[in-house]
Write a structure and sequence with these properties.
- Chain A: This is Branched-chain amino acid transport system ATP-binding protein.
- Chain A: Residues 10-258 form the ABC transporter domain.
- The complex is a heterodimer of chains A (260) and B (674).
- Chain A is of the alpha/beta class.
- Chain A has helices spanning 48-55, 77-84, 101-108, 117-122, 125-144, 161-173, 191-206, 218-224, 242-247, 249-256, and strands at 10-19, 22-32, 37-41, 63-68, 71-72, 86-88, 179-183, 210-214, 227-232, 235-240.
- Chain A folds into two domains: 1-85 and 177-260, P-loop containing nucleotide triphosphate hydrolases (Rossmann fold); 95-176, Rossmann fold (3-Layer(aba) Sandwich).
- In chain A, helix 7 (191-206) links the parallel strand 7 and strand 8 (210-214).
- Chain B is mainly α.
- Chain B contains 26 helices and eight strands.
- In chain B, the strands form four sheets. Chain B has a two-stranded antiparallel sheet.
- In chain B, strand 7 and strand 8 (500-501) form a beta hairpin.
- In chain B, helix 1 runs antiparallel to helix 10, helix 10 (252-272) crosses helix 11 (276-294) and helix 14 runs antiparallel to helix 22.
- Chain B is globular.
- The termini of chain B are far apart.
- Mean pLDDT of chain B is 84; it is low at 308-312.
- Classes of the chains: A alpha/beta (260), B mainly alpha (674).
- At the A-B interface, helix 2, helix 3, helix 4 and helix 5 of A face helix 19, helix 20 and helix 21 of B.
Chain lengths: 260, 674
């Protein structure tokens, strides 16, 4: 008798995505456990970003089921998925132009505001209180991602690349998600920055937030992830603990090229 | 059958004219992604030039100038070549410097070019119609088809020239090397440049051909209806743009198809619908709105054109750098940015200055001018909510303004005074009730009009809202039972408070100032909250906003509603201030003017719209003192157009490019937070 495994936080079953006649994802399965750092890896063009776009509602899958926290999220659309507690960053950073760092992070907290138009017009105590609380929370998150409040009033898009990444992560965390999806957060960073972001990701997990990480740096993936899923040609090639998966000859072949 | 046949024949003639102009729009859009609003004016120039070349002499700006008196074909050829040259010149001066500019800038210069060309034509040829001279083919007896359908020889010429021109163009694009280069540039300009295609020359060619087509359409139109007039290009230009969008902008067969459909639908509609001739303009726009709703890319267009590039509405810089203009604009920008950053303090200081100015101003004349500044500033603020903050280019905003003005005018004059004999003095309080009521009504309208536009982006959105604005105007003109039609509504009472008349220019100014303070305060309260942050997020990156949990469709509607509310609210006061309104007050030109005020003063700022209104209205007054302008009053608008073109070419990001307002509730950043 085994103890019943707890239901995964996110479960994707037999996801198929076709663009016209092209099958980008063909019958993909994945389960992400609560509070885990789950790596999604695969060679370029394997369909990782497509999968991420399916999970976050940007792409409607042609077929398949998506269950998040016990609820089907397949047809919810982008903001519906965000509302259920799935937050994301983008492969090529997408911060809002002209907004300050603090404002950008506050947009991430959009879900937690509810003041009505009259309440805003008359500046009710409750609407002011909510704003103050969220501003305080945004400052905490800026500290958490290692930026600090001194950056709060800078225009976000004028920051350095590494700092913009951190703003994006803070913005995503501001929605108090159950799961954070990071699309190549380490791209273009040096070794020091990479290990800093890796530490940040561990701290996110320590707060009970699951992380789905798309990443190419195998060293980081190996040290960071609790579980790995490998994608190749839109199909799942391997799934399991990092050591086992990375030792899998099929996975190595996919990365290094197949012997003929 | 004969009636139907005759309508079909008329529709084909009209359709040929629309199709030719639509090709101009589509060709240029295909190559440079620019809706060149000035094609309507090039259409008009084609008509005027042909007419002038056919006459023995013409009075130009009051001076009699001898003309060659060519026969129609020679004159037409001359006019087409001249217009094509003008088109190339316009591209060189007003559009080429803006190839990499933010997307709103070329749209604004194209509108400015229209204004310049139209005012210049009016200065040159006068405000009267110029009769199109007789041509011998036009004196031949009409051809009779099926015993009952009369087609003049010239009608046949119109159709034949359209067919020949289209066929020639298709051949040119398919076979010639320049045509191939055009197709390549349309696909990808950078790639075309990289493989050695002289993109600038290709674009110039597109403008030359497009302008030639517009001129041909214009002269055929003038020939058919027998006159040329400086404003004749406006409606056909809009219709042709509609036709191009109907067919799928960027597609030449689409433009031909769209033009034909529009011509036929208009002819049949005006023939069969009750009072159809009056409503025919609305028919085209209803068709446009319906089609864009169901199939945003048009009949034969590509869907990917319905996507605005990501990035700021006005971000980016000009290709010109350095020079005294640059320094001047830089200084202005810095000042406006500081003003925007100063927040409530600046607004209060501004209000105080305005109040002192209003209290001390000795001249009623200047008080009225200042009142207009405040009114236009308020209206521009309303437009700024949707364009400046939410980033949705709305060319139908005047409709909300019209709703407010008409609501209060109809209630006060047509219902209470004319039908029930109630004296306006006895119900002075109704005005204060109407202000919020009209705001709500207009907000409702705005949501109604906004809903079908939610799927549209960029230029398509602008065109659809433009269609809505025109529909409302046509309704205001033709629903005589409700609006008194083109006669307008007179004797709207001036504001009154507990029996104290507020009709004096000074009282009206302060009334307007109080409303303006309310409007700015309300907008600032909404913008400096999570709602404003959601709007700006949508403006900057709609998909990322959605991923942050912002239901973008709903927030776009909120922006429409807020902007509509302001329009309706201010419209009420506007009617009581002017004491007379007619559909002419709510033209597309007014909408464009408001847009320019916002861009001038700073998109997405609170005081920008008022600064823009101040600059423009004071400029108009000062221009009146120039002797040249006194002789030719229309040149004021030409001057405005030139100023705008210069502004956009040197400063496409707008005067207040670095001005940004805080989007966080004041006082929320108190100690303990940081």
């Amino acid at each position: 008798m085994r103890a019943p495994t707890p239901a995964p936080l996110l479960e994707a079953r037999r996801i198929v995505v076709r663009f016209g006649g092209l099958e980008a994802v063909g019958g993909f399965d994945m389960a992400v456990a609560r509070g885990a750092i789950h790596g999604l890896i695969g060679p370029n063009g394997a369909g990782k970003t497509t999968v991420l776009n399916v999970l976050t509602g940007f792409i409607r899958p042609t077929a398949g089921e998506l269950v998040f926290d016990g609820e089907e999220i397949g047809g919810l659309g982008v903001h519906g998925v965000a509302r259920r507690g799935l937050a994301r960053t983008f492969q090529n950073i997408r911060l809002f132009g002209v907004m300050t760092v603090l404002e950008s992070v506050l947009v991430g907290g959009h879900l937690h505001f509810s003041a009505s138009a009259p309440a805003l017009l008359f500046g009710t105590r409750r609407s002011r209180g909510a704003e103050r609380a969220m501003v305080a929370r945004a400052h905490e998150l800026l500290d958490f991602v290692g930026l600090g409040s001194s950056f709060a009033d800078r225009v976000a898009t004028t920051l350095s690349y590494g700092h913009q990444r951190r703003v994006e992560i803070a913005r995503a965390l501001m929605s108090a998600p159950k799961m954070l999806l990071l699309d190549e957060p380490l791209a273009g960073m040096n070794a020091v920055e990479k290990s800093e972001i890796a530490d940040l990701v561990r701290q996110v997990r320590a707060q009970g937030i699951a992380v789905l990480l798309i990443e190419h740096d195998m060293q980081i993936v190996r040290s960071l992830c609790d579980h790995l899923t490998v994608l190749e040609y839109g199909k799942r090639l391997a799934d399991g603990l990092p050591e086992a998966v990375l030792a899998d000859p099929a996975v190595q072949a996919a990365y290094l090229g197949r012997a003929r | 059958m004969d009636y139907l046949g005759q309508l079909l024949a008329n529709g084909l003639v009209l359709g040929a004219v629309y199709a030719l102009t639509a090709v101009a729009f589509t060709l240029v859009y295909g190559v440079v992604r620019l809706v060149n609003f000035a094609f309507g004016e090039l259409f008009m120039l084609g008509a005027f030039l042909t007419t002038s070349l056919m006459l023995p002499e013409v009075r130009l700006a009051g001076v009699i100038v001898p003309m060659p008196g060519f026969p129609l074909p020679v004159a037409a050829l001359g006019a087409i070549v001249l217009t094509a040259l003008i088109g190339v010149l316009v591209d060189r001066i007003a559009y080429r410097p803006l190839r990499n500019a933010p997307r709103l800038a070329p749209l604004i210069t194209s509108i400015a070019v229209s204004v310049v060309l139209q005012s210049l034509a009016q200065t040159l040829w006068g405000a009267e119609e110029l009769r199109f001279p007789e041509f011998y083919l036009a004196t031949l007896p009409p051809v009779v088809l099926f015993d009952s359908i009369y087609l003049s020889v010239m009608d046949l010429v119109v159709m034949a020239s359209a067919v020949i021109a289209m066929a020639g163009l298709s051949l040119f694009i398919a076979r010639s090397s320049l045509g191939r280069a055009m197709r390549a540039s349309a696909e990808d300009q950078t790639a075309a440049l990289l493989v050695g295609i002289p993109v600038n020359r290709v674009v110039a060619a597109a403008f030359a051909i497009g302008s030639g087509f517009a001129a041909l359409a214009g002269l055929l139109y003038a020939q058919t209806y027998g006159f040329a007039h400086s404003s004749m290009g406006f409606l056909p230009g809009l219709k042709a743009l509609t036709a191009a969008v109907l067919g799928g902008i960027g597609s030449i067969p689409g433009a031909a198809l769209g033009g034909l459909i529009l011509g036929l639908v208009e002819a049949l509609g005006s023939g069969y619908l009750p009072n159809g001739t009056a409503w025919k303009d609305a028919i085209s726009f209803v068709l446009l709105v319906g089609l864009l709703y169901l199939r945003p890319q048009g009949l034969l267009g590509k869907p990917e054109l319905n996507s605005a590039g990501r990035g700021s509405l006005l971000g980016g810089a000009s290709e010109f750098a350095g020079g005294w203009l640059h320094t001047l604009f830089g200084r202005l920008d810095g000042g406006l940015a500081r003003l925007a950053a100063a927040g409530p303090g600046a607004a209060l200081a501004f209000l105080a200055i305005a109040a002192v100015l209003g209290a001390l101003m000795p001249s009623d004349y200047w008080l009225r001018i200042l009142t207009m500044v405040v009114i236009y500033g308020m209206l521009a603020s309303g437009l700024n909510v949707i364009v400046g903050f939410a980033g949705l280019l709305d060319l139908g905003f005047v409709a909300f303004w019209a709703v407010g003005s008409y609501l209060t005018s109809i209630l006060f004059v047509l219902v209470l005074k004319d039908s029930f004999g109630v004296a306006p003095d006895d119900i002075w309080w109704l005005l204060y009730l109407n202000l919020p009521l009209a705001g709500l009504l207009a907000a409702g309208f705005a949501v109604l009009l906004g809903t079908p536009t939610l799927r549209l982006r960029g230029d398509y959105l602008a065109i659809m809202t433009l269609g809505f604005g025109e529909i409302i105007r046509v309704v205001a003109i033709n629903w005589i039972g409700l609006t008194n039609g083109p006669m307008g509504i007179r004797d709207i009472p001036a504001p009154d408070l507990f029996g104290i008349p507020l009709g004096s220019p000074r009282a009206q100014f302060f009334f307007a100032l109080v409303l303006a303070a309310l409007v700015v305060f309300a907008i600032a309260r909404i913008v400096r909250s999570y709602v404003g942050r959601a709007w700006v997020a949508i403006r900057e990156d709609e998909e990322a906003a959605e991923a942050m949990g912002v239901p973008t469709a709903r927030y776009k509607l909120y922006a429409y509603a807020a902007s509509g509310f302001v329009g309706g609210f201010v419209g009420v006061f506007y009617a009581h201030y002017q004491q007379y309104i007619s559909p002419l007050n709510f033209s597309l030109f007014e909408n464009i003017l408001l847009l320019m005020l916002v861009v001038l003063g700073g998109l997405g700022t609170f005081l920008g719209p008022f600064i823009g209104a101040l600059i423009w209205i004071v400029f108009l007054q000062l221009a009146l003192d120039l002797p040249f302008v006194q002789a030719y009053p229309e040149t004021r608008f030409a001057l405005l157009g030139v100023v705008l073109i210069v502004l956009m070419v040197f400063r496409p990001q707008g005067l207040a490019a670095s001005a940004r307002v805080s989007l966080i509730m004041p006082g929320s950043r108190a100690k303990g937070a940081a």
